[in-house]
Specification:
alpha+beta; 10 strands
């Protein structure tokens, strides 16, 4: 075993492992183990070539970071490379890492002010109403599946359920919802089209806001507009971009990952279908073993400090390796599975923990339950080893799941 390269500085390092290599490789736990062996629990990685960041992989280290706003800020105006002009204006990283006037990119009193509308709006949605909406959406999508030939459960179902559900909750028509979905996929891909499609997403939502100004409705858009903590429509737009982007992507990946494991792991599938493992336990299994948000952006160091033995310089970016932390031996990874343990970090922890956990779980649970009832004999129509992954440095999930199945009546 090599001696971990602790005590290094980002500015001194070259030939770094790309962050996307941890989300697109066949065995991410092995990738995290290699980084731990060389660097310890805080490892340098490349966001894109020439743009380094720290990947925080330790469970304890992540808890330390999220509980210390004084030294680790969510405000990306603290990003040294952005401040120094080293991030290209057309970089695909900017749509997901540039400063925004929303709760995600703020600290302290500002964060509390901008988080309150999200919490209030989501709390105001009736769980019974949402459940009916989700069930109807799931059944409608399954009814539209082709009667013959392989079915892509990602494109035709897993990606559609949260898209249609959340769009309806915001009072957004399905056609606009489908376009917004394409924008979110590009956003999390952080590729060359991310900037253009993020701009299109903002344009669409600006029109939705204007329409709701003229004709308020009983939906989340109007709830955002009516909340006194939003000072103007720009802040409403920023909150909508956050809710749609973060909630949408992670929920669809959560559904797709659960279906992938059921289709490729006969033991897991038998436990779920036989009722030995409840749907919520199955969903938590996925949050432990392959969380949708594998690498969460971002904290920025506000001063020089030390974390996990590494010298963190003011302005350094820190990525929270949620998937890596879930496999941290210190966290008892070997004892976590199928025990009802929800100490995973999939939803984040601390002041910035996801405010939409209830809604996200309801969507995912209903989507998986509906597949069990409506496609009871679904089987993978492609080699398990050939299931492609979305090319994203942040989320890890299947791009396609081709299945053969008999559709039953709802």
């Amino acid at each position: 075993m090599s001696t971990p390269a602790i005590g290094c500085r980002l500015a001194e390092l070259t030939d770094l492992t790309p962050l996307s290599a941890t989300t697109t490789c066949p065995d991410p736990e092995a990738a995290y183990a290699r980084l731990r062996e060389e660097f310890g629990q805080v490892a340098p990685v490349a966001l894109v070539p020439g743009i380094p960041a720290w990947l925080v992989m330790g469970y304890r280290e992540i808890r330390s970071v999220v509980r210390d706003e004084l030294h680790f800020s969510r405000d990306s105006s603290n990003w040294g490379q952005l401040r120094d002009g080293r991030i290209s204006p057309d970089s695909g990283l900017l749509p997901i890492m540039a400063p925004r006037e929303n709760a995600y990119f703020s600290d302290g009193a500002k964060h509390r002010r901008l988080r309150a509308p999200l919490v209030a709006a989501l709390a105001g949605v009736s769980e019974q109403h949402m459940a009916r909406l989700i069930r109807a959406t799931c059944d409608r999508l399954i009814d539209r599946l082709p009667a013959e030939g392989p079915i892509d459960l990602v494109a035709s179902y897993a990606a559609q359920v949260p898209m249609l559900t959340v769009a309806l909750l915001f009072g957004i028509t399905p056609d606009l919802g489908e376009r917004l979905q394409a924008c979110v996929i590009a956003l999390f891909g952080s590729g060359g089209d991310a900037q253009a499609l993020f701009g299109e997403m903002a344009t669409i939502l600006t029109r939705v806001i204007s329409a709701h100004r003229a004709a308020p409705a009983a939906d989340l858009t109007t709830a955002f507009l009516d909340h006194p903590n939003h000072r103007d429509d720009a802040e409403v737009l920023a909150s909508m971009l956050l809710t749609l982007g973060a909630g949408w992507e992670t929920t669809q990946v959560w559904i797709a990952q659960t279906l992938r494991i059921m289709l490729t792991d006969p033991r897991f599938d038998a436990q779920v279908r036989g009722g030995h493992l409840g749907i919520d336990d199955a969903l938590d299994h996925v949050l432990w073993t392959d969380p949708p948000m594998a690498n969460q952006p971002t904290r920025w160091a506000t001063s020089d400090t030390v974390l996990g033995g590494q010298h963190i310089a003011r302005g350094d970016a820190l990525i929270l390796g949620l998937a890596a932390a879930n496999s941290d031996p210190w966290a008892g990874a070997q004892d976590r599975i199928d025990t009802g343990n929800r100490a995973h970090l999939a939803f984040g922890i601390g002041l910035h923990a996801c405010p939409a956990q209830r809604a996200s779980r309801l969507i995912a649970r209903t989507a998986v339950e509906t597949i069990l009832h409506r496609l009871p004999d679904a089987r993978l129509d492609m080699p398990a080893a050939e299931v492609p992954l979305h090319p994203s440095p942040w989320t890890r999930g299947p791009a396609h799941l081709l299945v053969t199945a008999t559709r039953t009546r709802s």
